[in-house]
């Protein structure tokens, strides 16, 4: 089974992930992984730390001459800001961060012992895993695309209509990773205002996965359902507070006749292979019915809260004296929604790759391809 764990503290030596169950025989292009890592560091609203770090991956195991062996893949990203043992004690917990709940739970007196691991620096390790999973998915024509739908209440109504290749170009030219030129400058202005006000912002992210065939995921058990797994993966990202699949929250307000995607037969040839020939003219379900993919694009949205560390500190209480104090502030992102869109994309890529290997086997890419092709041949009959 495809699985990964991460290790590492924000100001420790490095961030690490170990990915197990990845098929043998796949060329891992380090440049592709590094590109995703660089993208995660960008976007208007990032703080001073991103000027210190220049993330790149070292592949420590699981490959020989850049080809995967089927053994655990260890991915390492060094922290330039390595100084964990010299950092001061934190006793003024920040509302919205893990500081208070963490120190009480673990019996610490210093919130540093919690925040170092709670920090979203950890997401660098996840993005490296996501990039490796995207390489696997590319062998089957599956593309995963994450972008910013809105920040600070300025939200785009624009649907992703272009091909993913075109949308990637538009997004990568955007200072906030959105695909809607009309809202971009307004959002950049709003982030600048948040900086001036010593405040912070959150926003909305959408991830779309194209090319997944019908039949991935499972209806038979609660923890095998693809929609549940994608929601878990997204909710595990720091500061994400809500998830939608397809139409999402708004589906609750509709009549059944408006909500469900009626079934027809006969699709243009290129799409036929994904759906077994069955056609949908709407995609309210976001590509998943009964916990199983239905061949339509997978659509997931994530809602990120504003960053909890504020320059104009929120009210808190000192852990030792129990006196009212201003919450701790050293340095922080003001808005990390663009970065989080890269992380959400990585998590969806991982979870889809995991469900995909469950269906088609994960020992070697050759075996996976044979199984995939034979399945596709069968669903077309
Ligand atoms: C890419 C990214 C960057 C973040 N940067 C910061 C930051 O600079 N300062 C901060 O206080 N929180 C930041 N956060 C959010 C915290 O890590 C998060 O709120 C905290 O770990 C508590 O977890 P929770 O919000 O999921 O409850 C960031 C989150 C992400 C996804
Ligand atoms: C280091 C990263 O994000 C960090 C996430 C983070 C937090 O509290 O989550 C706090 C900040 O770290 P620092 O306190 O060192 O400035 C961010 O920069 C990163 O994304 O690579």
TrEMBL record:
Instruction: Kindly state a single biological-process term from the GO annotations of this entry.
Output: aromatic amino acid family biosynthetic process
UniProt pathway annotation: Metabolic intermediate biosynthesis; chorismate biosynthesis; chorismate from D-erythrose 4-phosphate and phosphoenolpyruvate: step 7/7
The note describing how and how many cofactors are bound reads: Reduced FMN (FMNH(2)).
Q: Which PROSITE patterns match?
A: CHORISMATE_SYNTHASE_1 (PS00787), CHORISMATE_SYNTHASE_2 (PS00788)
Q: Which cofactor does it need?
A: FMNH2
One term under GO cellular component: cytosol
Q: Name one Pfam family in it.
A: Chorismate_synt
Binding of NADP(+) occurs at: 40, 46
Binding locations of FMN: 117-119, 238-239, 290, 305-309, 331
- Might you give the EC number(s) for this enzyme? 4.2.3.5
Keywords attached to this entry:
Amino-acid biosynthesis, Aromatic amino acid biosynthesis, FAD, Flavoprotein, FMN, Lyase, NADP
Q: Which reaction does it catalyse?
A: 5-O-(1-carboxyvinyl)-3-phosphoshikimate = chorismate + phosphate
What Gene Ontology molecular-function terms does this entry list? chorismate synthase activity; FMN binding
What InterPro entries does the record tag this protein with? Chorismate_synth (IPR000453), Chorismate_synth_AroC_sf (IPR035904), Chorismate_synthase_CS (IPR020541)
Q: Which HAMAP family match?
A: Chorismate_synth
Q: Which family does it belong to?
A: Belongs to the chorismate synthase family.
Q: How does it assemble?
A: Homotetramer.
What PANTHER family does the annotation carry?
Answer: CHORISMATE SYNTHASE
Provide the function of this protein.
This reaction introduces a second double bond into the aromatic ring system.
Q: What is this protein called?
A: Chorismate synthase
Give the species this sequence originates from: Kuenenia stuttgartiensis
């Amino acid at each position: 089974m495809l699985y990964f764990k991460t290790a590492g503290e924000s100001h420790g030596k490095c961030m690490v992930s170990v990915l197990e169950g990845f098929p043998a025989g796949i060329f891992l292009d380090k440049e592709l992984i590094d590109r995703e890592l660089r993208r995660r560091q960008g976007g208007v609203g990032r703080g001073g730390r991103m000027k210190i770090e220049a993330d790149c991956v070292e592949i420590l195991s699981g490959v020989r001459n850049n080809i995967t062996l089927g053994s655990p893949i260890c991915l390492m990203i060094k922290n330039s800001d390595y100084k964990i043992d010299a950092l001061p004690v934190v006793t003024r917990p920040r509302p919205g961060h893990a500081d208070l709940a963490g120190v009480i739970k673990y019996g610490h007196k210093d919130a540093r012992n919690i925040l170092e691991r709670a920090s979203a620096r950890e997401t660098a390790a996840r993005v490296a895993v996501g990039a490796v999973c995207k390489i696997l998915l590319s062998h089957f024509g599956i593309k995963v695309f994450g972008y910013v739908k809105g920040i600070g209440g300025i939200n785009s109504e624009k649907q992703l209509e272009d091909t993913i290749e075109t949308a990637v170009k538009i997004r990568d030219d955007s200072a906030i990773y959105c695909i809607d030129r009309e809202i971009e400058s307004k959002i950049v202005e709003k982030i600048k205002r948040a900086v001036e006000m010593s405040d912070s912002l959150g926003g909305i992210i959408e991830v779309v996965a194209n090319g997944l065939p019908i039949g991935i995921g499972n209806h038979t058990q609660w923890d095998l359902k693809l929609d549940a797994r994608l929601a878990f993966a997204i909710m595990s990202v720091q500061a994400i507070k809500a998830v939608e699949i397809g139409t999402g929250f708004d589906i609750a307000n509709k009549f059944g006749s408006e909500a469900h995607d009626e079934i027809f037969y006969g699709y243009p040839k290129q799409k036929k292979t994904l759906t077994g020939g069955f056609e949908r003219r709407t995609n309210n379900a976001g590509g998943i019915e009964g916990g199983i993919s239905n061949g339509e694009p997978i659509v997931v949205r994530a809602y990120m809260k504003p960053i909890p560390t504020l320059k104009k500190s929120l009210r808190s209480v000192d852990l030792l004296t129990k006196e009212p104090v201003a919450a701790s502030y050293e340095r922080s992102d003001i808005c990390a929604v663009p970065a989080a869109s890269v992380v959400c994309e990585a998590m969806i890529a991982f979870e889809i790759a995991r469900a995909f290997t469950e269906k088609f086997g994960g020992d070697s890419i050759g075996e996976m391809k044979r199984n995939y092709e034979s399945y596709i041949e069968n669903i077309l009959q």
